[in-house]
Amino acid sequence: MNLWLIPLCPLIGFLLSGLLGKRLPKQLVNIICVGSVAASFGLVIYLLSNIYPVNTPVTEHDFTWIQSGGLKIGFDLSVDRLTAVMLLVVTGVGLLIHTYSIGYMSHEEGYGRFFAYLNLFMFFMLLLVLAQNLLLLFVGWEGVGLCSYLLVGFYFKEKFAGDAANKAFIVNRIGDFGFMLGILLLVIQFHTLDFASIATAVKGMPVESSMGALSIITLLLFVGACGKSAQLPLYVWLPDAMAGPTPVSALIHAATMVTAGVYMVARVSFLYDHAPGAMHIVALVGLATAVFAATIGLAQNDIKKVFAYSTVSQLGYMFLGLGLGAYSAGVFHLMTHAFFKALLFLGAGSVIHGLSGEQDLRHMGGLRKAMPITFVTLGIASLSISGFPFFAGFYSKDAILAAAYESASPWMFWVGAATAGMTAFYVFRAYFLTFFGKYRGHHHPHESPFVMTFPLMVLAVFSIGAGKFLSVPEWLAPMFPVTEHGSMQPMIISASFGIGGILLATLLYVIVPSLSDSVKSAAGPIYTLLANKYYVDELYAAVIVKPLTLISRTVLWRGVDEGLIDTGLVNGLGRVAQALGEVARRWQSGSIRNSATWILAGSLLLIFILGLGVR
Amino acid sequence: MIEHIPIWWYLTLSAVLFGLGVAGFIYRKSVITVFMSIELMLNAVNLTFVTFSYQNKNIDGHIYSFFVMVVAAAEAAVGLAIILTIFKNRGTLQIDEIDSMKL
User: Fold this and answer.
1) Residues A598, A463: Cα–Cα separation, whole Å
2) Dihedral angle over CA of A126, A129, A130, A136, nearest 10
3) Which residues of A touch B100 (CB under 8 A)?
4) Do A463 and A344 contact (CB within 8 A), yes or no?
5) What mean pLDDT, rounded, does chain B reach?
6) Is A254 inside any structural domain?
7) What pLDDT score does B102 carry?
8) A601: domain range?
9) Is there a single domain that holds both residue A610 and residue A480?
10) A586 close to B (CB below 8 A)
11) Does a structural domain hold residue A357?
């Protein structure tokens, strides 16, 4: 089985549409780009049906990439059960979102460019998922970061899009710096980056009770995951990344790329198993992010911002699960989240498309009659993310919260359950503000075309059924043993928090809409704090960005670059050469007699020196 | 007869001739005189060669002096041609006025 064919398809799509995109008609771009992803999806299905039930990983060595001393890094691809889940999510959701984009982008400029970037993203994401060593994973990791940058800045004529793209890229650099240090430490420690070899080597090592090499490595890798998966304190780029087109938000900034950190941690779980201290930090950061982002989500008015903060919050849940050792629960939530969050964003995109670009919840309302399909599917997604019983999100969120309930620190469960309540509240707040009440906008709303609503319906089916019928923890049990939890208590508590959130939102935004304003004014300063996202951006600007630009401007630019390099070195050298030349120029008077005198002086000097030698 | 003349007489004569050549080369103003001074220096060197050759009973010095004469003949032909061209173009042979080699 040629695994390399899977990422190759979108790469070909990227090359064709990227090089010829402007000259090809839209129909052909659709066929190439959506077709290439469909081909990947088909290959994945074919592969998995051949090797089902993937009890042993299928690995292939395509070529040796780097050989230096004892270090040998190959272009190795591998499929095990974890990869299988990711492959299906990435190609499946990717295919749906590509299809949706045909409708969403139909009126936009740069059609070919958009699909080229999207295909390039699919290539790197599949490479990331299939990689059998950490360095190849890192190639995919940086590649998806690049595509994220390109797509966030897709509307590059707008300044805010360019700024958001820069922010995404630069914040990710911080995380990737940590990630790279982790990789280098792994090379020093194990002399290999192959997952299987490291896993074998780690088996013989003791579990670290205090900070040791493995703890430092895992924490550095987690710094990388914090950047890519938008955890505290590096989450700031994700809400701004909503400046990109909505399908991009759905595919890259909700369903796939931002979950790369979760996938990576699950992939190297054998390292984390030996570093309980680092695991605890992962759980704490995840939980803190979940709460933090959920509270901000309560007070946002841009529909995409609400969903962006909910993504940050749900990613926090996943890391909570990973940090508690419930890797399969984290990956389970990754999968269901990919479905319902892609659906939320695509639904939001459908609303935005129907309102000709309006994103502010205050200018929506009453759209349920104009957009019935979006209304129903978005409702399903909202129920799913709220953890409403028997929807997909219910099962995965329960798996994480149950792990917290039975862990050494059960307080995490209560915080997590309260966050679930907040999640339900703000998602339904956005939902009700969009579809209920009176229409408050100016555009004429219309339902989206079938090419957009079809992916919504498919995703809605998965948002309902993926929890019950695609039980990831069972599937991953051979890799990550599941601890059976008999108690129904956490399930009931978290579900009732979720339902409580929904009911509260119903009360405030449907039954007595005037009440929400009085709550808002009663909350006063807290509301202002939340609406301004805890002033984190302002804090970062004051503490990091401003001093950095100031130092760059005064010291590095004026001082080092202009002063030292330009004036000192470049111009200085030039001036020295000029001064020397000025002296030498005087000798070249052009007078033959002068030249002759110098020749005479020179030969006398030579004779004198030679005479000294003889004596 | 000739054996009785000491070697330093020849060398002194040669040095005097060479010195005259150098002085003429540096201080004379006409290009032709300068050119003649060069010939004078060459012949002074030739005399030294021959003297040492005779003194050391070694034929090498003679061969060198023949070489110098051949080269001097060629140089005289080329040099005079250059001088003629300069005169044709500039109408002067004053060495101070020919200073266009300046930067």
Assistant:
1) 95
2) 100
3) 590
4) no
5) 88
6) yes
7) 62
8) 539-614
9) no
10) no
11) yes
> Does residue A572 share a domain with residue A429?
no
Closest partner CB to A596 (pick from B26, B99, B102): B26
Whether A222 is in a domain gets the answer no
Number of domains in chain A: 3
Q: What is the pTM of this model?
A: 0.79
- Does residue A494 register a pLDDT over 60? yes
Between A294 and A106, the higher pLDDT residue: A294
Q: pLDDT value at position A307?
A: 92
In this structure, of A4-8, A312-316, A428-432, A437-441, the range with the lowest mean pLDDT score is A437-441
Predicted local confidence at residue A318, as pLDDT:
93
- In this structure, the answer to whether residues A25 and A151 fall within a common structural domain is yes
Residue A589: its chain B contacts at CB < 8 A? 99, 102
Q: Which residue has the tokens 């299939």?
A: A130
Q: Which residues on chain A are in Cβ contact (under 8 Å) with B95?
A: 592-593
pLDDT of A284: 93
Confirm whether A8 is domain-assigned.
yes
- CA-derived radius of gyration, chain A: 30
Please state the rounded mean pLDDT for residues A18-39: 88
Classify burial at A342, counting beta carbons within 10 Å of its beta carbon; exposed 0-12, middle 13-18, buried 19 or more: buried
- Calculate mean pLDDT across residues A192-198: 91
Q: How many CB pairs under 8 A join A and B?
A: 27
Note whether A596 contacts B103, CB cutoff 8 Å: no
Kindly tell me the burial class for residue B79, based on how many C-beta atoms sit within 10 Å of its own C-beta (0-12, 13-18, 19 or more).
Answer: middle
Q: List, in order of start, the domains of chain B with CATH numbers.
A: 2-12+27-90 (1.10.287.3510)
Question: Shortest CB distance from B22 goes to which of A590, A592, A600?
Answer: A600
Cα of A585 to nearest chain B Cα, Å: 7
Clarify whether residues A328 and A396 are in a common domain: yes
* H or E stretch at A67: strand A58-68
Name every chain A residue with its beta carbon within 8 A of the beta carbon of B102: 588-591
The reported pLDDT for the residue numbered A322 is: 92
User: Does B47 contact A at CB distance below 8 Å?
Assistant: no
